Each structure stands twice: as structure tokens, then as C-alpha cells.
Amino acid sequence: xxxxxxxxxxxxxAFILLMQGLFxxxxxxxxxxxxxxxxxxxxxNRRVIIILIDALRSDYIFNRNHSxxxxxxxxxxxxxxxxxxxxxTHTPTVTLPRLKAILTGTIPSFWDVLFNYNSSSLEIxxxxxxxxxxxxxxxxxxYGDDTWLKLFPHGIFSRSYGLQSFFVxxxxxxxINVTRGLYAELDQREQWDLLIVHYLGLDHxxxxxxxxxxxxxxxxxxxxxxxxxxxxxxxSNDVILITGDHGMIDQGGHGGSSNEEIFVxxxxxxxxxxxxxxxxxxxxxxxxxxTLSALLEIAIPFNNLGILIENVLQTFQLIKKxxxxxxxxxxxxxxxxxxxxxxxxxxxxxxLQQIRQQAMKLANEQDFLMLIxxxxxxxxSTILLWFHISKMCSIxxxxxxxxxxxxxxxxxxxxxxxxxxxxxxxxxxxRRSIDYKFEEKTNLSSQLLIYYPIxxxxxxxxxSFIEEEHQTWYYLLSTYLFLRTFEQKSFQYFIxxxxxxxxxxxxxxxxxxxxxxxxxxxxxxxxxxxxPLLYYGLLFYFLIRKEMSIPNILFCLLFLICRTHNxxxxxxxxxxxxxxxxxxxxxxxxxxxxxxxxxxxxxxFVTIDISTGFVGIPIxxxxxxxxxxSLSTYGLSILWLMKxxxxxxxxxxxxxxxxxxxxxxxxxxxxxxxFVWTVFAPKLFYQSAQTALSFMLFF
Length: 699
Prior knowledge:
Elements: H1 3-22, E1 48-53, H2 59-62, H3 71-78, E2 82-88, H4 95-104, H5 111-115, H6 127-134, E3 140-145, H7 147-151, E4 159-163, H8 173-186, E5 194-199, H9 201-209, H10 214-233, E6 239-243, H11 259-262, E7 263-269, E8 282-284, H12 288-296, H13 310-315, H14 322-340, H15 352-363, H16 368-384, E9 387-388, H17 395-407, H18 410-428, E10 430-431, H19 444-459, H20 463-467, H21 469-488, H22 491-503, H23 519-526, H24 532-545, H25 550-561, H26 567-579, H27 585-598, H28 622-642, H29 646-669, H30 676-696
Parallel strand pairs: 1-5, 1-6, 2-8, 3-4, 3-5
Antiparallel strand pairs: 2-7, 6-7, 9-10
């Protein structure tokens, strides 16, 4: 049996353990709130319209010093008919966890990032459930992102029209359909009580072209026209809420924790406002949940961690109703204390902020045992790569089953089975011989290949080095090529060195300098229309060769689906692949890691380019889109592994598994770090995906 097969399985399991220990599933319960300050089944007949604009950054509302802002909001504020507040979201800043935060008031789990592409129904207490529970005869209508229909598939909406949210090449038609439905509902206001619309065009433009361009200006103008029309059709008793699920960085991505991603506006609009109480404070996005509960006159969802925004209640004149206002505050406090009642955390606080901080500890509690087990499995499976597996290892399956029968703990039982498997493998298996000899041990370049993994592994203990990991690989690649130029007295290596220096400036990535202009920005603004000529030249090159190997097919696909300005990088890497002699697993690993960052990737979710999954695909096909996105992210990296022999790949994989092992130790030591979401989580995600793709080439 091949040890590589077991190593990939064990590494995947170790990654799951590590993620489960670092980011446990949500601790929310299925209990339903039954107490409310609004006991009467009658309501104020207030109609509420919630307009959610995907990727609506806060500066599109609050920054009036540039041309990218919603002028309609400024106009309504001058008329004292709009109250704008700034909300801080929690990471990850992607749609599904943000919708859950607004609807339930809970802090999302990291695992919601994975479910973002195929969400399931929302089973815990939420605003829409409470609304239908109190007012079963009232109608909720929805138009927009079909994620809502996946969250509520069982008759919550009286009417709905869902649109595919991941077809990111559609900037206009998708929003036209939403607006058409919105305007039709405004003409039959007696047919609904709560109207929700979710616009997607702004987010799609961001993914394709960034946050500041002519497409964004046109989209904001379109939203202005929509807001003005909606305002003209409502009466003084109605409420309009305009907000965003998350923001986006200047380059258009989102998922991290930069200010551009985590701050969104919430604008309350009503013709009935008599006085606006301006508020410069910042609130959490989850604070919308109890505030909307008060405006809808329903119970606060049971798992809510949000706190009532008093300034909004004051603007809606609810504070003047002294008894009601005090009841709302007490109900919010009681609901938060209930979350702590079955824990050891203290409930001896009267201040809502302190109670909330205690309750948040439940959502971030980490499993130390899981972290330790993951490190141990990483370590053992890395060593296992050196051994031929014995059939006696099957005994470990029996051990795992017996332990599960005794303990009824699936993760721990599987961990015991894997550990037993590894120990039996070490004892019974035959160690394989791996040749680590370099042709020129005295050369500085060869010494660099031997020792650079040590420097890289040490750098993983710094969150800043993880965020800016590309700088490490750029430095190592340029240094290696520079040394080889002098050692070989080779003009060819000098050209490779110049190319490596050129393409490192092609895409700014990482975190600290992501906003700086780069060559890609210049090409997109100036010469992008010339880039297709390179593609025709590439096709002609393959035509005269009369055959296409798998690497050439991959290069062709990469050229087709990558961002336009990255076509030159694909061509340069083709030259590298043809003429750079790579006969060592360590050098291949160095080149593969540099290639990942040269395309503009980083250890952050914001640089995942989902637009590459839709090149030439007119409909939404998840498998094909997933393949294209994975290829555009890891294609250049995997190509270097394909150039090696099986024995040389083992050296490559040993470095990869060693990094996984040491990084798991780094995670354990820094598990309470401030950037645990935005640094460790993406790095774990990328590292596990690269490990899987690398091991697959063995079979």
C-alpha cells in the first residue's frame, strides 16, 4: 500500500481537528424566545422595507469628499428624514455568516465560510421566525440573493424571487430583476407587511474591477434612483432600512478584517421622523437584531448577542414611552443573561456590555484537546511518509472502533486509530530510501535550498510574516537565481532573475501594501485591449507544435481564465517551465510557492478571485466553477510538482507536511491572537487545499 494515500487522509483529518479546535461550531441552541414587551397581537401597522446592498462599504454613505457615495442618503439626511449609523461586522466578511448575524444576533462560525456556497436552512431562532410566530396572517415578500431562500425554504415568504448570487459577471440584469419586483410590490402595498430585497450588482463589480471605477459610479447612481423612488411611494408610518452585509477592499475582495470590509452603514429612513438624533458612535452589526425586534414589535431571538441601539429607538420616539423603553432594556438584559445561565461564567453584571462580553466567550471557546491531537497527527503522518505500510496497520481500525464504542467520541476515536496506525507502520513497515544528495554541496545556491525551509518555518510564528509571506518567497527565489547566475556564469539565469524581479511587482498582495498601485493596475487602465493578442500568439505556438501535453493544456487554461493583466505572468512561467532546469524537490517547492503569490494570491480570503470560475461559462455549474477557481489559484504551483520524478516529489511533500506540522504548533501557541480569524484561518484553508492537490499527483 502507498504511504502517500494514508498521509493525505491523515493530514486532512488533522486539518479538520485543527480547525474544529480553533474555530468550534456555533454554540447556539434551538430554544425559542417566548417573552416580549409587545404582548398584544395587534401592531402599529408599520410596514418595513429592508434594502440590503451587497458589499456596501461605509464610506459610500459617510465619505462625502469623493464622488463614490449615495447622494440620495445625503439629501434625506439634510431633510432630517434619515438616520445613518456605522456598524462593525465580525469576520468572516462573506454573505452567509453576515445574514445569520443580522437575523439571529449571533457571532458566526468559521465553518459558515464553507457553507457560503451552498447554505442550508436556518434552524435557530431568528427575526423572520418570530415575526411569523406573532403575526401568522402577515406577509413577508423577498427579491434577490437566493441564499435567503436556502435559509428559509419552508413557507416563510408569501412571495419570493431568488437570483443566483455567484454569477459574478452579471452587473446589471440581476439588479434590474430585483428592482422590477420591488417596484411592483410598491404598487400593491396592501399585499405585504415586510418587504426584503437583496441587491448583488455592487458586489459583483467589486470582484471584477474593484471598489472605485465607472461601473461602481453607475451602480451607485442606479441605487440612488431606486432609493428616491421607494421613498416617494411610502407613507409616514413606514420604515426603510438600507444596509450592507459586508464591505470590500479597494481591490474588490472581502472576507478579512480590514476597515473597508468590516464597516457597513445602516440607514433608517421614515417620513414620520420629527427629529434626528445624530450618532457618531460605532455599533456591532448584531445590534441590528434586537433593534429591529423592537421596531417590528416582536420578541428578541433567543441566541441574540446584540444590544439595543438607543439612538434609533429615540428617533422612533420609543424612548418617550418610558415603561416600554425600560421593558425593552430589561428584556435585552434578561435574554443575554439566559445565555449564561447554564455556564460557569459570571452573570453578576447589570451593564449590558459586560454581559455581552461574557456571552461572547461562549462563541469563541476553543478545544485544547483537539489542537493537541491535530499536532500529534500532523507529526506522525509526516514521519509515515518515510515508510512502506504494513498490512498489520489494519489492526488500527479495530482499535478505533472499540474506542468509539467505549467513549462515544468520534473525533477522539479516529485520532486514537490514526496514532495506532502510525505506530504500527513505524514498527512493522520498511523504511524507504530517499536520496537527499545535492550535486554541488559547496555552492551557496545548493546550501540555500537545504536550509531555507528552516527560515520559513521560523517565520510562521509571526502573524505579520504570515500576512506578508509572499515577501519571504520572493526574496528566496530572487536570491537563488542571483546566486546561480554567478555560480554558472549563465546569462540564462540572469534573464530568469530579471523576470522574477519584474513579476513580483505585477500584483500587490498581502496586507500592508495591498493598496499601492502595481503593474497590473497600470495595464488594466491602459493596455488591457492589447492582451488578447498574447492569447492568439499562444494558440499559434501550440498549433505549430502539433501536440499538447498536460502541462501545456494547464498553461492554456490558466491563460484563458486568469485576470487579463496576469497573462504576461503565465507566459513568463511557461518560459521558466521550458528552460529552467528543475531536478530537485526543494527548488520545485520554492518555485511553486512563489508562483502562488505572483498571481496576486495571499494568505487572506480577500484575494480569492471567484470571477475566474465564470470565464466562458454562461450558467452556474458549481463543479466547473470550483475547478476553475482552484486551477487559477494553485495551477502554477502544481505544475512544478508535475515536473519531478516520484522520488523527487517525496522531498517536495516532506517539506509541505513539515510546514503543516510546525504551523499547527504555531496555531496552538497563538490561538488567542487578535488576528486568529484573518491570518490563521485563511492560511489553514490554503495550506490544506495545496496539500490535497499535491498528494493527488501521486495517484
